[in-house]
């Protein structure tokens, strides 16, 4: 019998299965476990949005929508970006995708040729790296752990100098998963200056834009519009992860090419879900505020609790993650640490090494869970640290 897996796409075979989901699945077998694993708001979708989805079904909006998205949703998304962040796009420059997950895939597929270099500041959500590798790109990880988990202009310039004309794109995600770090506008402007007028795309994943705690949302789009491919959506700010609606915004010549990939893999998104997303963008522009206030409270409780136990953390400025360094005296292999903590302490966290270079020796905790679970998790973690510190 022929082993056909040997003849499959090289980059795909080398790509590791999703470690985060695999570990989350493993912890499901442990009774009474407190989970800080999955980045999904534990809130419900606002009622007015649910009613919009119901009305769409009742009104028989059950047929194919235009491939790039319904006109109503594309206008609502463009208006939202302009009003909230000053990001000016025509509705014709908006593409509706199956979440930002598809947005990332569509963009990378549209721009990568085998051998192209993609620059990725790490630690970062591993999807970008896996997608790029499966497409034959050379992924250059820029370790930011020594710079408070922020990419610096000096490190970006050094990478450009080293890889020169091979660099096709820079990946930026802010607020950042897994660290919760947010850049100031001045910091993003300085990065923009390094790549300005070079034949380099900048993927700006801004899905957590409504969850900025200490400052207005900043964006590279403001100073690098013609090179930025902007991504956003309704999953995080409106607790609509299951609706699977993301948006890509880019200058029309670029968007037209990305849309060809979208047409080939999904054709279009479900019409009732698009109608619900239109309601979110147009009539729910402040829906995230109560959720953001609650996340801030949870962040503070979890941050204070972790630091008292000896975990070093950069205090998150956005999203709903804390990236904590494992204290000395405990198991320093972060993968071994999380399995041991799950089995002995009944607390589930994610290994920092799952997020690429710079994550080794850290754990990520998602505080998209109830305050009661956070407090219980801290109690269990305190007990585990006392019993296992050498």
TrEMBL record:
Keyword Transit peptide applies: no
InterPro entries reported for this sequence: Aminotransferase_I/II_large, AspAT/PAT-like, NHTrfase_class1_PyrdxlP-BS, PyrdxlP-dep_Trfase, PyrdxlP-dep_Trfase_major, PyrdxlP-dep_Trfase_small
Enzyme Commission code(s) on record: 2.6.1.-
Pfam families: Aminotran_1_2 (PF00155)
Cofactors (names): pyridoxal 5'-phosphate
CDD domains, sorted: AAT_like
GO molecular function (one): pyridoxal phosphate binding
PROSITE patterns per record: AA_TRANSFER_CLASS_1 (PS00105)
Boundaries of every Aminotransferase class I/classII large domain copy: 32-381
GO BP, one annotated term: amino acid metabolic process
Protein keywords: Aminotransferase, Pyridoxal phosphate, Transferase
Family affiliation: Belongs to the class-I pyridoxal-phosphate-dependent aminotransferase family.
Name listed for the protein in its UniProt record: Aminotransferase
Origin species: Lactobacillus ultunensis DSM 16047
